[in-house]
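Example 3.2
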Amino acid sequence: MSEHPSEPGQVGEPRLASAAVPTSSFPSATPHELPVAPDGPSVAPDGLSMAPDGLSVASDGLSVTADGPSADVVGDSPASPVGRLAATVERLSREVRAAQAEAEGRALIELAKGILVERLKCGPAQAARQLAELAEQAQVTPLEFAVDVINQAARDRMSEVTNAFLAATKAADETEAESAAVRLRAAESGVLAADDTQAVADALLEQALRPLGAVAVAIWAAGSDGSLTLAGSAGFSPAEATRWRYVPPDVVTVARRGLTEREGQWITSLGQTGLPSIGLHHHPEGGRAALPAGTGGRIHGVLEIAWPTPLAPQPPQIVRQVEALAELCAHTLETYSPPHGGVQEPRVLPDAAELMDLADGLHDPALVLVPHLDAAGHLVDFRIQHVNSRFLDPAGRPRAVVNGALLLEAYPMAAGDSELFQRIERVYATGEAFRARRMNLTALVDQVPLSAVADISISRHGSSVLLIWRIEDETARLASLLQHAQRLGRIGGFEENMLTGEITWNGQLFDLYGRPRSSTPVPLEELTAHAHPDDGVSIRRFLRTLLHHRRPAAAAFRLQRPDGVTRHIRIVAEPVLDTDGRLLLIRGACQDISAQHWTEVALAATRDQLAHTEQQATERNRLTLQLQHAIMPPTQAPLQVDGLQVAVRYRPAETEQLVGGDWYDAVVLPSRLVLLCVGDVAGHGIEAATSMVVLRNALRGLAVTGAGPGQLLSWLNIVAHHLTGAVTATAVCGLYDPARRTLRWARAGHLPPVLVRDSEAAPLPLVKGLLLGAVPEAVYEETEIQLAADDTLLMYTDGLIERRDRSVEESLTHLLTTARTAPTTLDQQLDRLLTYSRSDTDDDTCIVGIRVG
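Structure, written as tokens:
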């Protein structure tokens, strides 16, 4: 601002220097919005009088004449203190009036540009160029030409200006876009009058955006490093504005999208994008608009607008006007600089500042955390106030991304399994330090959890918390694992330079060779001198493949160590060639396989012994089966008895190793009675088979005495206990009289026979009887049953019904159900019982059946 000397005839009239009018565009102005009398002064929207005696336009700019007292005050000398004070007041008054006139002049030019936008149907930039070119052709200043454009537009619609203005007001609902344009132009005037970016944000929200349904606005200044600084905001709480005062580079937000896309971002619902933004917690589903604010092809920042609810598509006219507001914000951002001449840093507490200095002096990664409280003063999170230069993020992110963020936003998994956040919260509440080794740290990057292991130290200093973590070095950890693997596997590595002859061994290889680590390593070509003479051929073949054919090779040999110990070694190596195919290096490894070698020798001997044992067992089973089948063939011709059908079935065990002692017998005695019996010797193998033969033959011999079933079982018990090596067995013995159709029977610990009569099946009433061989002497109860024509009696061993997963009662019920269906012949019935048997023990099975004719 400067004063020019008064021109002749206008003494005491101050003149303002030419106003630097910005080239940004305003919303279009229609003539009926500018009521101007044809013969009177033209009226600007602010009520500025354009009377000839009040405002004169010079060719070099805007001059203002003021009617009033001169700089000298009547009655006071200019040298007196009162005179100097009056002069100062007058000078300051002139400067204030000049500044107001300058702002009003810029408003007139922008209004003229808006008229040209509507009349010529062009953009704001084209209207600015057109205004400058027309002013130059008319040889007048842009301000003079702007006044002419405004007055001309007003005269064109003079006769209907009042009625049109009232009609536009009454039809506000029908012409919302036009009303919005009027409000936006009013906002532009308020922005021009604002003196800082915060005032610009207030003016935009109150005069232009709130009528459109918006609830908040943020003006972001773009830094040279890609960061965003909140230069001004309106509608957001002070806490929210403080929280979002600075956005580091590479943090993707809604404003960042508006900056990088270089196009207006109109977002229907913020929740659908998943992008963070200022005020997200208050309006998570609201609409957003982010428009780049730039002039002359340079982007200075972003204008972000927030709506409380999802945003509907806006008319093109509203979109253009909002873009014009973003361009207007760029003029305020051109001269914007953050406080203290740099990026706005968070407010630092005194103890936090000292803690930051302490963290910078540590050799371990450290974070300084300050409490983040909600509106009610409750602790909800911790802000990462500072990260030191040693900081290493578990996810590999740069320091700038983490610095300044909330802890749970940067590390949302901290509240999960590791309970890191709860530990920090406890330290802050109690002041008691916490330390832990090998705690899992998890960071969520692009929805992928990345984990690391670290030693943790948490301590409170004043109102801040110092978090130190030492992440396990992956390279060192893998090297340690490799060393342990080499130790456990007794593997030693080597590398031999074929050009220089330099040989490198690790410590494990010196131990394998039994040589001190200060000794000289053995070259590959001298390997045969340290091996058993019988292994020379395989070693030379190994060296020829490796050195001559230059291919990877492997060999096994016996290493003869200086201490006289022979170790079995497996060596693998590969050649390293240059681009010309020359051999540069040989690298490989040796493994001590002595334990494996002797294990293989022992296994080979064991395999031979097992093969011999298996052969013996096979031969034993084969002999057992031959003995069993020779004495009791699986199929036997039925007996020929008048009025009686007899059938037998024997099913050997499915597994040869389970050859058992099941037996049966059906024979006509000299007394014309029919002996029917089944039995089962405990155990398997040749002992059970031979015991079965003894009991079967003994019962046959005892039966010719004419004794009853109970007596026969008593004698057979003595045989089992004294003559067969104290074996135990179960049996059912019966004597059938064909003439009387009666059956006398007894049992020794065996299941009772089953009687099938008239499609009903039931076991015979149980009689007492101890199993054979359990005691030296035993008495067995016997009973008699009268059979009728077509009755079927079944005797069987437990191999027919026994199951591992069910009780005997359940298995017997299934047998009775199957036996009720009696086929035509007795043979078919026995075959049916074997077919539908549910036994799963793979035991022998014997069945003896009789059917009365």
